[in-house]
Design goal:
With 144 residues, this protein is of the alpha+beta class. It is 20% helix and 20% strand. InterPro entries: START-like_dom_sf.
Length: 144
């Protein structure tokens, strides 16, 4: 769903769990015909993503993940599920950056000012060593 708040565009993706007879919320029913063989089903009460345009940085987005859920599992499984959500947000960030870079036309490298020599990669922040080959991206002018 898209909307406008205080002149900024925003998008929301909200979701909740749906109860299904063949997937019960407790792990004690694994011997039943509708059991899940020991799997535990979590329940999303009210979860989703909120994406808003930034007011301080034009062209930037603020992404927020709201989760209200019960995992019905041990702490380790809950932490693993939260880590997967964090990885999804990181992948979303990488995808948005790659879409932005691929949509722009290559810039004229000769017209760009020479800056201070980079000490780390502009993409992954890996420190440059003595024999590391440095190249400049022709779209964003960052050293890769």
């Amino acid at each position: 769903m898209a909307t406008t708040v205080q002149g900024r565009r925003g998008w929301v993706r909200a979701y909740t769990s749906v109860d299904v007879d063949s997937c019960r919320p407790s792990a004690n029913d694994r011997d039943d015909a509708g059991g899940r063989g020991g799997y535990v089903r979590g329940h999303h009460l009210c979860s989703g993503y909120v994406v808003m345009e930034s007011t301080t940085k034009p062209g930037f987005l603020h992404v927020r993940l709201a989760m209200q859920c019960t995992f019905h599992a041990k702490d380790a499984a809950s932490i693993k599920a939260l880590a997967a959500k964090c990885q999804h947000l990181a992948a979303l960030d990488l995808r948005l950056r790659s879409c932005r870079l691929s949509s722009n036309q290559p810039s004229n490298v000769k017209s760009m000012p020479l800056g201070v020599p980079a000490t780390a990669c502009g993409h992954c922040n890996k420190l440059f060593r003595l024999f590391t080959i440095k190249t400049t991206c022709q779209k964003c002018n960052q050293v890769l």
